[in-house]
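Hey,

The postdoc asked me to send both predictions to you directly instead of through the lab channel. I've kept everything plain text so nothing gets mangled by the mail client. Protein one:
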Amino acid sequence: MSDPNKDIVEIDSDLKSRLAALASRSGLSVGELARDILRDHADRQEVLIAEYTEDEARWQRYLETGETIAFETVRAKLQGLAAEAAHKQNAS
C-alpha cells in the first residue's frame, strides 16, 4: 500500500541514472539526494524572491521620493568593504 503523504515526481531515465550515480558517490539513497536537491533549490528560490521583493520595494521608494545615493558614496562604501575583507583575509 502506498503512503498518501508521499508525492510522486516523474523523471526521465537519463536523469534517473544521473541521480543514481550522484547518490552512489555521496553515500545517499536516491530519495535522500532528491530531497536534498529539492530543499536546496527551494532555499535558493526563496532567497531570490526575497531579493526581488526588496529590489522592487526600493524601486518604488525611488519612484515615490526621487532620492538617490551619490556614486561617490557608494564607491567609498564598496572600497571600505573591500579593504575590510582584504584585512580579514590577511589576518587569517
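Protein two:
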Amino acid sequence: MILKEFRQMRRNRRTVALMIGLPIMLLTIFGYAARFDVTEIRTAVLGPAAATVSSSLGDAFSVVVEDPSGGDAMARDLLHDSRAAVAIVTGPSPKVFVDGTELFIAQSAMRRVASLPTGAADVEVLFNPELSTSAVMVPSLIGLILLFIGTVITSLGVVREREQGTLEQLAVTPLRPVDVIVGKIAPYFLVAVIDMVVITVVGILLFNVPFRGSLVMFGAFALVYLFVVLGLGVLISTVSQSQAEAIQLAIMVLLPQVMLSGMIFPLSSMAAGVRWIGYLLPLTYFVMGMRGVFLKASSAGALAFPLLLLTLMAIVIFAGAVLRFRRDLAPKQLEATPTPQPAVAA
C-alpha cells in the first residue's frame, strides 16, 4: 500500500508540486510581505522651508514632491490623488496631513511626527480621521469575496461539466467556444453582482463605512474586475481535470492576492523582490480603486491608471480563457464531425 501510494503520488505531479510549492510560497510571503512596520512613506514637503525639512527627514520619509510655493490646499490635493501618503507644510504654523486610507502607513507616520524637524506641527488625518479598520477593510473585502466567487465557484462549475461528460455534449453543438464560456459564466456573473451589492450595502450600514465617491466609478471597477476574476475561474477549469485540482489551483491564485495586494499589508513595507508581484495582481488595483471611491471620492483622472490596468488584465485573461477553452473543445468537435464519404457514381 505504501509503494502504491508513492506511485500514485508520482503520477499526480500537480499535487506533489502543491505540497512542496505551497509551503515555500507561504514562507516567502509571510517572511517578506507580512510586515506591519512601514519603512517607506511617500511624503510631500511644501512651504518656504521645504528644502531644509526635506534634507533633514529620516529614511522612512521618501520625498516624492518638494514645492516651496505649496500650501494646505496643495497638500490636500496630493493626498486626495494618492500622490503622497503624508504632506508636510512648513512655515510659521507648520502642519502635517496624513492619508487615513493607508492605515498602517498613517499609524507609522503618526508615531514619527513628533520627531519631525518642523517643531510643534498640527496633525490632520484626512479621509479616515478615526483610522477605522472597517472603513479600510470593507472595500477590500468586496474584492476578496468576488475573487472567491470568480475563481473557486466558477472553476468548480465548469470542471463539474467535464467530470459529468456534459462538456463533450456541448462540443458537438453549433455553439462557439466564446458562446459556451459566456453561457457558463453568466449565472455566476449575476450572482457576483448581487453579492457585491449586498456586501456594499451591509458594509455601509453595519460598519458605518462612508461612500463618498461616484456610483459610475464604483460600477466600472466592479464590472471590469468581475470579468478578470471570472476569466481566471475559466482558465483554472481548463487546466483542471477534477474539482480537487481546481480547488488546489484556486488556492494558489487566492493566497498571493490576499497577501500581496495591499489589502492587509501595505505594499511599501514589502521587500522589493516580492513587492513587484503585488503590482501584477488584479486585486491590488481593485483595492486602490475601491478605497479611492469609498473614502476619497477620487476623480476619474486619479483612478484612470488602476482602472486601465484592470481593463487590460480583463482583456488578456478573458481572451486567454476563450483560446484555452477553444483548444479543449476543438479535438472533440473534430471527432464529432462526420467524415464526408466519396460520391458513388450512378
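Summary for protein two, as requested: Residues 333-337 have pLDDT under 50 and may be disordered.

Thanks,
C.
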